[in-house]
């Protein structure tokens, strides 16, 4: 556990060699999801350092999800890296975690990024821009809209604070240079982060050092056996085996 802004942040740390690999989960996901477990198994087999954690309001960490914003979760990621993986880590970000990884890169100085269905700017491009006027009005007037989720029996609170804070972190309107190699894994059948959205990110990244793997039948989770193999291969491509 780490103490962040007076709250306990749940962490799992596997000691090992090489640049530490840090897992950045998605919106309402947690550090025990199948992709994180697959990377932990890889790290155990290869003797690699691996760090994972739950953002505030997620999984085993303290706090209420509805009280948090992108700024809070970015701060969580930066604290975890500074405390547990300070040596130019490899950031592996899934969905929202991809956006967090890109935002954190400016301060963290990673040695590589692996992004799974990166939901860059999702609060604006994939939420607000897609909402009908009635939902926008509810978010602004009531402060929250409860969005039905196919991943949870409970709806997801989309708050006015989340939308407004997200605008402080928008990236797709300018060039993005994380200063390290980037490998993006993207499903073309993803209903939540369309592959065309991932291509908007690719257009903003540098001309060199960027690899994109498109999986035509791939969904948003990319958690099937073949998908997990691709994830491990992508991480190994940036984090080669130690002696």
UniProtKB/TrEMBL annotation:
Q: What is its EC number?
A: 3.1.1.93, 3.1.2.22
Keywords for this entry?
A: Hydrolase, Transit peptide
Q: Which residues form the AB hydrolase-1 domain?
A: 41-222
The record's section on InterPro entries has: AB_hydrolase_1, AB_hydrolase_fold, ABHD10_acyl-thioesterase
The source's superkingdom equals Bacteria
Reactions listed under catalytic activity: mycophenolic acid O-acyl-beta-D-glucuronide + H2O = mycophenolate + D-glucuronate + H(+); S-hexadecanoyl-L-cysteinyl-[protein] + H2O = L-cysteinyl-[protein] + hexadecanoate + H(+)
An example of a GO molecular function for this protein is:
hydrolase activity
Q: Which Pfam families match?
A: Abhydrolase_6 (PF12697)
Role this protein plays: Acts as an acyl-protein thioesterase that hydrolyzes fatty acids from acylated residues in proteins. Regulates the mitochondrial S-depalmitoylation of the nucleophilic active site residue of peroxiredoxin-5/PRDX5, a key antioxidant protein, therefore modulating mitochondrial antioxidant ability. Also catalyzes the deglucuronidation of mycophenolic acid acyl-glucuronide, an active metabolite of the immunosuppressant drug mycophenolate.
Recorded protein name is Palmitoyl-protein thioesterase ABHD10, mitochondrial
């Amino acid at each position: 556990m780490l103490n962040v802004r007076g709250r306990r942040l749940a962490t799992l740390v596997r000691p090992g060699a090489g640049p530490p690999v840090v897992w950045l989960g998605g919106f309402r996901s947690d550090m025990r999801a199948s992709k994180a477990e697959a990377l932990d198994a890889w790290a155990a087999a290869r003797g690699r350092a691996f760090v994972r954690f739950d953002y505030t309001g997620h999984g085993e960490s303290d706090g209420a999800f509805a009280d948090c914003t992108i700024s809070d979760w970015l701060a969580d990621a930066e604290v975890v890296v500074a405390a547990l993986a300070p040596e130019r880590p490899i950031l592996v970000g899934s969905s929202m975690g991809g956006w967090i990884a890109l935002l954190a890169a400016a301060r963290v100085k990673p040695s590589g990024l692996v992004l799974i269905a990166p939901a860059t700017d999702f609060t604006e491009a994939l939420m607000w821009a897609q909402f009908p006027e009635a939902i926008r009005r509810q978010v602004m007037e009531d402060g929250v809209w409860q969005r039905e989720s196919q991943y949870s029996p409970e709806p997801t609170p989309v708050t006015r604070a989340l939308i407004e804070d997200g605008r402080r972190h928008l990236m797709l309107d300018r060039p993005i240079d994380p200063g390290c190699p980037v490998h993006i894994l993207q499903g073309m059948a993803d209903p939540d982060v369309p592959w065309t959205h991932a291509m908007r990110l690719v257009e903003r990244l540098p001309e060199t050092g960027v690899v994109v793997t498109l999986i035509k039948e791939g969904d948003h989770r990319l958690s099937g056996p073949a998908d997990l193999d691709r994830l491990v291969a992508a991480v190994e491509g940036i984090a080669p085996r130690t002696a």
